[in-house]
Structures are given as structure tokens and as C-alpha cells.
Design a protein that fits this description.
Blueprint: H1 33-48, E1 53-57, H2 63-69, E2 74-78, H3 82-92, E3 96-99, E4 110-116, H4 125-135, E5 136-144, H5 161-169, E6 172-180, E7 190-197
Parallel strand pairs: 1-2, 1-4, 2-3, 4-5
Antiparallel strand pairs: 5-7, 6-7
């Protein structure tokens, strides 16, 4: 399945990035392509996960955790950014439990794990995927598939669509794959995959 998100407006988002982790503060960011791309990913995930225990890894300020909770899920939001976790707790404590990755609540089992724009931040993305495959039945994940390391100090590596797909396929059977394309571009900007555990 291939879907394309295109909005005519596209604004610089750096003023709405949480500085100690690189997540976008979707609540404060104006309506633009990037903000809507983030929301579209979570809208997809909340249709995949209904009424289960879900890990939102890289939850940022928690807007996606709230969306997942709205689909009847019990959500554990995890982020390495203390600033993002403080904001998430202040704004959305009633929707999810927000913890650091080292917290025991971040351990499975889970019906599913959501990891949007996480792999590019990790030194060892393969190890992360291996761990998720052990405690989660499903994975809904995204990553930029255009060069981003030179523009984002929080990113450790770039992925092509083929590299990203191959990493996921080693541990999960791909159920759905789709791309988000910036306005007036032909190539995908983000790849999104729903994988089921083998």
C-alpha cells in the first residue's frame, strides 16, 4: 500500500524542537507538512493497535501516546529526553505512563511497539530491533529515508528505503509499508512499516 501525504505549506521546524533529544513539540508547532506527517503516522498506529498494551518508544512530548490511548490502549511512553518526558507528564499524565528507557515499565510483553523516527538516533539500531522483537508482537516504525545526518545533530546515520526495509524484515514480517513525500518532490522522505513478529 502506498499513500502520499502532501501539504502545500512547509515551514522550518527548528524553533519547535526539544533541544536535548531532537523531538518535535507538535503541540506548539504551527500547522505545516512536518507536523501533519507526525500526526499521520500516529493516526496509522492507532488503527493498528486497539485495546492492547503498547510501548511508544521515542514518545517525545506525548501527543502520539495520547492518540494511542484514545484507541483503548494502555500506553507506556518512553523517551531519552528528560525535557520531553517532563512536558509529556505535564500535558498528558492521564493518558499514559512516561518513563526513561531504563525503567522496568519499558519492558514487555507488549501487543505492539511504536518507534517513529528512533532508529536514526541510535548507535546500534539492529540491537534495538532485536530487543523489540523479543517483547512485542507488532512493530510500527518510521525513519527518514533521505540524508538527514548533515542537517540534524541528533541523527547518527541515514537509511535508504531498501536498508530500512531489510533491517525490519530480518525480525518482522512486513504487513504494511508506505511512504510520506514532501510537497513537490517525487522521492519518499519518510518510510513507515508495520511488521508482525515471526
Amino acid at each position: 500500500m502506498r499513500r502520499v501525504l502532501q501539504y502545500l505549506q512547509d515551514v522550518p521546524i527548528w524553533d519547535w524542537i526539544v533541544k536535548d533529544g531532537g523531538c518535535l513539540d507538535v503541540d506548539e508547532c504551527p500547522d505545516c507538512w512536518e507536523r501533519n506527517a507526525h500526526l499521520e503516522r500516529y493516526d496509522f498506529a492507532r488503527r493498528v493497535f486497539l485495546g492492547g498494551r503498547v510501548l511508544d518508544f521515542g514518545c517525545g512530548v506525548g501527543y502520539g501516546s495520547e492518540m494511542l490511548a484514545g484507541a483503548g490502549n494502555t500506553v507506556v511512553g518512553v523517551d531519552a529526553s528528560l525535557t520531553a518526558l517532563i512536558i509529556a507528564r505535564e500535558r498528558r499524565e492521564q493518558f499514559a505512563t512516561f518513563v526513561l528507557p531504563s525503567d522496568p515499565l519499558a519492558q514487555g510483553p507488549f501487543l505492539g511497539t511504536v518507534a517513529f523516527e528512533v532508529l536514526e538516533h541510535l548507535e546500534y539500531p539492529e540491537e534495538f530491533l532485536e530487543q523489540v522483537a523479543r517483547f512485542s508482537k507488532h512493530l510500527v516504525i518510521s525513519t527518514p529515508v533521505v540524508p538527514s545526518v548533515a542537517h540534524n545533530p541528533h541523527h547518527k546515520r541515514d537509511f535508504t528505503p531498501a536498508e530500512f526495509r531489510a533491517m525490519i524484515e530480518r525480525r518482522f514480517e512486513i504487513v504494511t509499508e508506505w511512504w510520506q513525500v514532501r510537497p513537490f518532490r517525487k522521492e519518499p522522505c519518510y518510510a513507515v512499516i508495520h511488521g508482525a513478529g515471526r
